[in-house]
Amino acid sequence: MTAAEEFALTLTKYGLQRMTARVLGALLFTEQETITAGEIAEQLAVSPGSVSTAIKSLDAVGLIERVPAPGSRREHYRFPDDGWARLMSTQNAVVRMMQEAAQRGIDATGADSLAGRRLAEMWDFYDHVLRELPAVIERWRVDRKDGA
Fold first, then answer.
1. What is the pLDDT of residues 41-100, one digit of tens each?
2. 83: which residues sit within 8 A by CB, 6+ positions away?
3. DSSP one-letter code for 112
4. DSSP structure string for 13-78
5. Of 68, 90, 89, 85, nearest to 77 (Cα)?
């Protein structure tokens, strides 16, 4: 089993769709600057349609970017330099949704109920994450720039 396949299996184990994980692995482990969807499909021995669907998923969370390729009519892709920070930034929307769900639960059950107290802890946690995550990402970017 290759390192890319192992990587994809790990991601799948933690909830990522199998094909999306495999395409992400192909992006991360390629030695080319860019790669086409056709090249990914060929490398993974899968249909171009399944790669296209995975690319849409990765694009939605910022883990893939289209790159101009002069002289080529095909779309070229790569993993963005700040892909992980982009992913965490897009997660803010998910965090907000979780916090809003907690608030709706508190409103429905009452703040003084056992469920309301559990949901208040959830709301507090996500509030903390929303406040801290931008600073964590910025510190990472600064540290990365200073280390480069």
1. 999 999 999 999 999 999 988 899 999 888 888 999 999 988 898 888 877 788 889 999
2. 62, 63, 64
3. T
4. HTT--HHHHHHHHHHHH-SSS-EEHHHHHHHHT--HHHHHHHHHHHHHTTS-EEE--TT--S-EEE
5. 68
* CATH number of the domain residue 16 falls in: 1.10.10.10
How many domains is the chain partitioned into structurally?
2
Check: CB of residue 86 under 8 Å from CB of residue 62: yes
Give the structural domain span for 113: 83-147
| Tokens linked to 25 | 């692995």
Query: Which of 35, 60, 78 marks a domain boundary?
Result: 78
Which token pair is 95? 């965090």
**pTM, whole model, 2 decimals?**
0.79
